[in-house]
Predict the 3D structure of the following.
Amino acid sequence: MELTPLNPPNVPITHHHLLDLNAWTADEIHTVFNTADEMAQILQRRVRKAPALQGFTVCSLFFENSTRTSMSFERAAKALSADVLSFRAKSSSLSKGESLKDTLRTIEAYQADLYIVRHRASGVPYQLTRWTDACIVNAGDGRRAHPTQALLDAFTFRNTFPNFDGFAGKKLTIVGDLMHSRVARSNIRLWSKLGAEVTLCGPRSLCPASLADTPNVSLTHNLAEAVEGAHAVMAVRIQHERMQNSLFPSLAEYQARYQVTPEIMKQAHPDALVMHPGPMNRDVEISGALADCERSVIEQQVANGVPVRMAVLYTLLVGGRQKAAM
């Protein structure tokens, strides 16, 4: 397998949307990371703002509840001086029977240049691309994809180590409810594309074998085996809200077999990071002590959501088409 250079030069990115990471090359992803590094510098200034997206309007369309994703996208857009509109389904005319298409047509009157879309049904961001010429960023659709979460996870891993030497030869272990996790699916796609090895682990009922069909991806139901030698261990939560029936005997059994703890992390690489995309159920999928330990980068993941999403907004709206002041 041919790997891209560690720090490849920036390449032109002409994507109009970020729906998933399938069509994005490794070089393009590295370019987004490099742009995120620049955005992080903006956030270190006394005045943490730049005029790069002045004159653009960004609209968030959230049909599901969100804390981290919605707030970080809003912070990202405002830090680049974009005008921001926020739509929340619970307080909209959807509750009165208005269709999704008619709702979008109404919002289109406000001249948004980019929509950030979260929806419980897979494929909705794709559908919206047929009804608008604006850019679409997928902020999570059903169990299918959450590309900006995967980008910020990999960016956090990349920037935690002072002498980071690339994703090749690194191992990410993802543990938990993988069946319902859009975060897991996007991380599988991204990390394997960048040359890392990905190991999946969890109860058989929550770990579809099809997830391991991607090159560099393996599946095991033994947690100690999954964590062995891992450079990062990511726990994902059990999504009870997406289950019609219980898919495992009890929480107690899940905790006994699959909770990520300080003890199980002894099997990982000595410098291994502890990760979690949130929301986090302490002492269920991850022990509270481990979530707060020195090797945990969970808070950094949250913080890195802002520069990474700034980079995505800038790349789609400006990119190589014109040079905006930063």
Notes: Confidence is low (pLDDT under 50) at residues 1-6. Residues 26-145+303-317 form a domain with the Rossmann fold fold (CATH 3.40.50.1370). Strands lie at 57-62, 83-88, 114-119, 135-141, 171-176, 197-201, 217-220, 232-236, 273-275. The CA atoms of residues 63 and 91 lie 10 Å apart.
